[in-house]
Design goal:
Elements (H helix, E strand, L loop, with lengths): L7 E2 L5 E11 L4 H8 L4 H9 L2 E9 L2 E8 L2 H9 L2 H10 L3 E2 L26
Amino acid sequence: MYDRNEPKQNHRGQNMQRVAFTMHVKAGQQREYIRRHKAVWPEALEEMRQAGIHAMSIFMKANELFVYMEVEDYAQAVEMLAKSPDSVRWEEYMAPIMEDESGDVYDPENAFPEGLPEVFYWSAD
């Protein structure tokens, strides 16, 4: 089984952890989620960069989100972002339109859950 904590080289030759997880948008809030992500606050993006996140993609199917990122150290990034004022403010801003997997209230203090296990990776490089 893949060890998420073991860094892998990305296409730029940098050692990164590839992390993926799912999240959920409340029913009927998909357009609002997209609207907000077209205007992510620059200061929140800067805090992600400072936390060692080099790339992030979010995919949406109905109300399910699939988040993928390349990060230097996921555990360290999560810890840093939990203490970063603009990141905390962003998660609080997003909380009213989010829910957890069971449809319960979204906890912005746990915005970065345990990642999914990677079972396959291929690169032409």
